[in-house]
Amino acid sequence: MERENLSISVIIxxxxxxxxxxxxxxxxxxxxxxxxxxxxxxxxxxxxxxxxAAEFQDKIxxxxxxxxxxSSARNHGIENAKGEAIAFLDVDDLWDKGVLTEFADYLVAHxxxxxxxxxxxxxxxxxxxxxxxxxxxxxxxxxxxxxxLGSALYRRSVFHQVGxxxxxxxxxxxxxxxxxxxxxxxxxxxxPRIMLYYRKHERNxxxxxxxxxxxxxxxxxxxxxxxxxxxxxxxxxxxVSWQSYCGxxxx
Length: 251
Known about the structure:
With 251 residues, the chain is α/β, with parallel strands linked by helices.
């Protein structure tokens, strides 16, 4: 008897992403995976994001919310998702070909695994384009494993155990979530192949708010320490180190 595929919901949180939205949706469609649900959560965009999303109205589920930040947008997507597995793709990033099939097959074959993650290839925009179609990206650094929500496929059940993203966090929300997954001993496996092309450009939120991001990291680690203290010594310790679980950014 032929095995049924794991149903996947892909969530694209977007704020003023008209420049990249078409390519992101088409990149997901080109995975040629079924059953697949694409959810675009528009976080209060003021550009042509809604108009562009309407061009794909028969192929995506479009959700609009007032501007509340990426954590809230992703949570909104999860709450509306129907898939057995969840994936995230930021509007300006791309996936490697065939990665959804490989990672979904891995989750089906390994029911004890909650997260399957690939490697990240960081890409840098070569020039600032004059229009929306001429930009080019080139790879920088070697592929690496680190915290990036778009580099993994997650069982839906993991979010019941770990919880959703903290809507009060507008940066480092991914680090906060991965720390909580680590604290809860969510079994994560890394497959040594590129999943995510992480594309950096002048409009990246992280690049625009680097000082805030570094300050936010201090808050994230304090939250981690506070949770450990509140749970007491009887709390079961994670089975692997934090460094092994999350990896390291490029030097």
